[in-house]
Amino acid sequence: MVRVEQLAGGGLLTLHDPWLPSAEAEALLSTLQDTVVWKQEKIRLFGREHFQPRLSAWMGDPGTIYRYSGLTLQPAPWTPALAGLRERVEATSGVPFNSVLLNYYRSGDDAMGFHADAEPELGQNPVIASVSLGGHRRFVLKPTRDLPDEAPVTLSLGGGSLLVMSGTTQHFWRHGVPRQAGAGPRINLTFRRIVAS
Ligand SMILES: O=C(O)CCC(=O)C(=O)O
């Protein structure tokens, strides 16, 4: 099923759910859990250093360097599984990607704070394609102060779904994955296009 949601300010969400067949999504989750070199990065927030409450990895074409929250990520080469998945994400979304940020939420205690994928190296109005494997988590979008009358939008992402965020979503909306008691392991893959490093 494909659900399309227009966001105020010109953003667009396109959710393909289901997208990957469930057996394939489960097999990919366990391959990535076992084979990716996961790190718990230390980031700088409001002048203080914290460990991120999740594990992550960065993969991409040579030269796709990504900087956020005081981190500079050098790309690991594509694994065969993720190179193949990139092609399928590109076929569904119609957009080329050269990199992917992997986030591993080991349990409902792991989380992602509210932010926009709006780093300069992603260019103006980036398209972000987000594949979610494993347990479902609430994915919440909150409007920025430019849209004071808008209510948050909440989706449930997991099990092999594909969410494409496009238009001005990263300009007028911030997104996050709050802690969620009882949630199982989940890996999220956000495919991106670095246009300048
Ligand atoms: O885990 C998710 O669904 C969100 C990941 C995310 O916000 C990001 O990679 O920027």
From TrEMBL:
Residues 96-195 form the Fe2OG dioxygenase domain. It comes from the Bacteria. Keywords: Dioxygenase, DNA damage, DNA repair, Iron, Magnesium, Metal-binding, Oxidoreductase. It holds the Pfam family 2OG-FeII_Oxy_2. Its cofactor is Fe(2+). It comes from Chondromyces crocatus. GO terms for molecular function: catalytic activity, acting on DNA; demethylase activity; dioxygenase activity; hydrolase activity; metal ion binding; oxidoreductase activity, acting on paired donors, with incorporation or reduction of molecular oxygen. InterPro entries: AlkB-like, AlkB-like_sf, ALKBH3, Oxoglu/Fe-dep_dioxygenase_dom. The keyword Lipid metabolism does not apply. One of its GO terms (biological process) is DNA alkylation repair. Signal peptide: none annotated. The keyword 4Fe-4S does not apply. This is 2OG-Fe(II) oxygenase.
